[in-house]
Structure formats: structure tokens, C-alpha cells
Amino acid sequence: MNVPDPMSTSSSSGSALTREAIVGALSALSDELGKQGVIGEICLFGGTVMVLAFNARLSTKDVDAIFHPTTLTRELVRRIGEARQLPPDWLNDGVKRFVSARHETTVGNLPQFPHLRLTMPVPEYLLAMKCMAARVGSTGGEGSDIPDIVFLIRHLGLKNARAVLDLVGQYYPENRIPMRAQYLVEGLFEEGTI
């Protein structure tokens, strides 16, 4: 069964968003929300969390998020993207259909802004999402979740594949967990990567 990748949405640009670019764009979004007299909320996912909260990588291809107020934020994001020459989907909510029923979030180590509150999945939830995606990379330009998975397993101090897969099962029904996730996690421990 081909399971859509919960950590990625299509991006029309191959350019990477650095911490500086993301923080600058989110700061601009906060300023624009403030002009409207609104406090916005964004829950960040995927690579953006790895960049902003964990400093585990230098960039990400886009900002996967769910946000409120939806319509206003979407319009402001479009304008900010145009002004900053960012890809049209630099901040998108394609990830929303993959949010777990056990949606546990934290402010973590994320920057905060006067008119924009940022949250992220707790690390366990983020690891579960990364395992569900289980991207291994390809010559077609698809990213790999392996470095993020390894980082989060180490961060959480998980000692074996069963502990990781049990954690994934706490966030997603067992019948939705793709076999490639199990093979990937087992392989990481068998090969001594972790």
C-alpha cells in the first residue's frame, strides 16, 4: 500500500529554507497579524522543527504546519512569500491530514513572536510521524527521514526497535503503520546506526 508522506508536501522549488529565512518570514507574519489585531497560532512539523527546535539540520524544503486563523494566515503567507521570493508553498498545511488523534504539542525550544504563537509535536509524536513517512531518499530528489529518525531516537534514549515501534503505535493505529517503517527502524538497530 502506498502511504502518502506525512512529512512532506509538494514543493515547486528545490531551494532550502534556512533557520534565518524561516525565522525572518515568521517574524514578518507576526508583524502582519499584529497589524490586523490578531494573535496567530502555528503548529510546526517535520524538518522545520528539526531546524528551529533541535538545531539538528541547517535547512528544510518547506514549513509543514497547521495554523489559525486559517484564511487570514494563508493570505498573509502568500504575500510574505512573494515579497521574500519564497516558494509558493513555503508554509503549507498539507500535513494536517496526517495529524494523530493524540495530537500532543509543546512550545519546546521554538522562537516566539509578539503576534504569533508557535508550537510543535512533542518529540515522541514527531518521531512517530517521521517513522510513518519512512522516506529513505532517492535519486529523484526525495529527502530522507533517516537522519531525523536517528536523531530523535537518540534524543529520546530509545534502546531498541520494539521501543520505537511501540511508540509509533501510541500515535497511529497499528494497521496504518507501513511495513517500510518497521523495516527501516529494525534496520537502523541491526546495522548499528543507533
Provide structural commentary.
Helices cover 43% and strands 13% of the residues. With 194 residues, it is of the alpha/beta class. The chain has one domain: Beta Polymerase, domain 2 (2-Layer Sandwich), CATH 3.30.460. The strands form two sheets. The chain has a five-stranded mixed sheet. Strand 4 (63-68), helix 3 (70-83) and strand 5 (91-92) form a beta-alpha-beta unit. Helix 1 (19-35) packs across helix 3 (70-83) and helix 6 (161-171) runs antiparallel to helix 7 (179-190). The model is unreliable at 1-13 (pLDDT under 50).
H/E order of the elements? Answer: EHEHEEHEEEHHHH
Under the CATH scheme, the architecture is: 2-Layer Sandwich
Oligomer: single chain
Largest sheet: 5 strands, mixed
Distance between the termini: 28 Å
CATH class: Alpha Beta
Mean pLDDT: 90
Strand portion, in percent? 5-15%
Residue runs with pLDDT of under 50 for 5 or more positions: 1-13
CATH topology-level fold name: Beta Polymerase, domain 2
Strand order of the largest sheet: 5-4-2-7-6
Provide a quick synopsis of the model.
The chain is α/β, with parallel strands linked by helices and 194 residues long.
Which secondary structure elements does this structure contain, and how are they paired or packed?
Elements: E1 17-18, H1 19-35, E2 40-45, H2 46-52, E3 59-60, E4 63-68, H3 70-83, E5 91-92, E6 105-106, E7 116-121, H4 123-133, H5 146-156, H6 161-171, H7 179-190
Parallel strand pairs: 2-7, 4-5
Antiparallel strand pairs: 1-3, 2-4, 6-7
Helix pairs in contact: 1-3, 4-5, 4-6, 6-7
